[in-house]
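Deliverable D5.2: sample structural annotation.
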Amino acid sequence: MNLAESYLGEKFLQQGIKLILRGDPERNIVFLLNWGDKIARDPRHKEFIKSFRHFLVDDRDNNWYQLAHRMLTETHPKIRQQLAVNFFINAGLLGIPRQKKASEEIGAHVPWGILMDPTEKCNLNCTGCWAGDYQRKQELDFATMDRILTEAEELGIYFIVISGGEPLMRKQDIVALAEKHPGQVFHLFTNGTLIDEAFVADMKRVGNITVAISLEGMEQTTDERRGHGVFKKVMRAMDLLRENGIVFGVSVTYTRKNTEEVGSDEFVDLLCDKGVAYGWYFTYIPIGKDVDLEFMATPQQRAYMYERIQYFRQTKPIFLCDFWNDGEAVNGCIAGGRTYFHINASGEVEPCAFVHYSTCNIKDISLKEALGNPLFKAYQKRQPFNTNLRRPCPIIDNPEMLRDIIHESGAYPTQLHANETIDEFVGKIEPYSEAWGELADQIWEETHGDAQVEKAIKAAQ
C-alpha cells in the first residue's frame, strides 16, 4: 500500500508537519519543501513546491517571503500547525487523490470544498446582499451539518467554507463542529462585528478556523453599505485577531462605487498593516437583495481590477484572489460541484453561492447522491463556459448558458421572491455580458494570441 494512502502514513505526514513547524519554523522551511517534493504525487503539487522554493528560499527580497515570514513567526503555534496539516496534507496531498478515487466509485465528480450556510439570520442589513432574498430565518441543524462533514471526509473533502447570513450567530455550533472534525479547515465569511475575546480564544484552542472579514473599502464606504460604525468594529476585530496570532483575511466586493478605492495602494496597505494574510475579491453580482445593475462594476473597472490584483501580487505581502478575473488560473468557473458547491441554510443544494437554484435538498439525501444531481451534471458538461477564460461566469459572462442549464435540469428557484424567470434575468443581464465580452475578447487576444486561443478551445472540447 502506498505510504500516503495508509493510516500510518497519514499520521506520519501529519506529525512530521507539526514537528517541522515547532521551534524555529522559518529555519525548517527548506526541510519542509524538500520533504514535500519527495512525497508529492500530483505534478501540480511539485510545481507549487518549486514556486514556493523560489520565493521562500532562493529569493528572500520579495513580498511573498515577507508574508511567509510573518505567517511563520507571528501565528499562534497551534493554529500554524493545525492549518498546515489540514490544508496542505489533508485537503491537498491526501484529499485530492481520495476525491479522484471517490469520483470514479460514485460516478459523480467530488469537489475540493463545500460552502455551507448554518443560518440565514444576520445582525446587519447590507445594501445588495447576495443572500438577502433568502427567507432570513432558516437554519441548518447541528446534526445535519455534522452528517455533511462526516460524509465529506469519507469522500476526501477537508475544506469547508461557512457563510450565511452571519455565521457567527451560530458561534457555539461552529466551534463544536471544528472540535468534532479536527482534520478539516473551517473558513468563515463574516461581517466581523461578532468577533470577540471568547471566540478568538476558541479559535486558538481548536486551531482549524480562519475568518475572512467583509470590507467595502475605507470607513465611509464600508459604513455606507454595511451600517454606521461597522468599519471601526472590523478594525478592532482585526487588531484582536492579530494580537492573538490568528490567521485571517478579508472579503471585498467591488462595485461601480468603490472599485478604485479597494484597488488602491492605500487600501491594500491598510490590510497589510492590520495583519491580513489573504483577501478574496468579488465583483458585485446582481442577485439577492436590492438588485441593481447600475451597482455593477463597469467592464472597464473589471479590467482595471485585474491589473491591480496582478500589481499587488508582485508588490504586497498579502495573497489576493479575484474570483472572476482569475478564471484563467482555474480553467474557468469552479462551481457546480467541479471544485465547490453551496448548501444554503434551508438545505438546498446549489451550484454556487450566487446561483439560487436547486434540484435537491441535503436533508433528504446523502452527500454522494447530491453530487450526482441533474443541475450539477448540466453545469459540468458545459464547463468551461467560454474559451476566453476572462469570461468564466455563467451568470454575468455567459447568461445564456445558465438559462440552458436551468431549463435542462428542471431546477427550481430558492430565493424568497422568485418573480423573475431565468429567461427574464438573461434578457436583463445580456447588455452587460456583451459589453464585457467585447472588451474581454480584445484583452484575451492581445495577451494570448491565436495559439493560446486554439489551446483553450481544445481544452474545452
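Annotation notes: The first strand starts at residue 113 and ends at 116. The first helix runs from residue 7 to 21.
The annotation will be released with the project's public dataset once the embargo ends.
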